[in-house]
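Morning run. Coffee first, then this:
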Amino acid sequence: MPSQTVVVPNSTILSGHLAAKVFAPAPPARVGTPPRLAELCASRRHSAPRPRVALHGGDPVTAAGVRAALIGFDLVEAGSSADVQVVCAPAVTPDLMRTMRAAGRGRRVLVADDVTALDVLTAVECGVVAVLRRSEATPRRLRDAVLDAARGVPALHPAFLGALLDELRRVRLEVLRPRGLELSGLAPHEVDVLRLVAEGCDTEEIAARLDCSPRAVKQVVQGLTKRLGLRNRPHAVAYAFQAGVI
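And here it is:
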């Protein structure tokens, strides 16, 4: 199982028994959440096997608070094989992002004070699947975040999700579209080719329908497969399908 990381600011976690006193109880489910659905989600989450959790960074007091919040989990030392990594950090910084990238692939949870839309976008690229505000990082929420990360369940605060979508929209309009690309990494003419490949057309049929030469079709396919690290045409079609462009 890939290594996974939870990032917690130093100011959030207190040591030992103080953690339970300082952290406020987790708020109830949002209004409108079906009670039965909430019960089923909680039941599935807490019936899952407890993941192995490694603690990274942070001062001794912060680390002690994290350990107190994660009582009952299989806690291991930093650098050990783990299902989830908890990285304690005071803020989202370039150094923190480099640390997460250096840690390799894995699902991560980020807990911090000031997180911008760009921070969220970069964090997601580093494998972050959940973002919690520091004020919301109660022991219960931290435990749930670790369990959800282990299961690969994404969890973004609505405010972060909205900011992330706004940033993605800006990147799409100001960065990608002027270069003939979309968020999928595919240009419109590449999507047209892959859509016809998915329909079962061969190179000559695609060329006829797009009013171009067979050589141009081959160049498009070869170019996108090389750029995106895809193996062949079926792999390219699967990529486009998963990206939602065909």
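The mean pLDDT is 76. Good start to the day.
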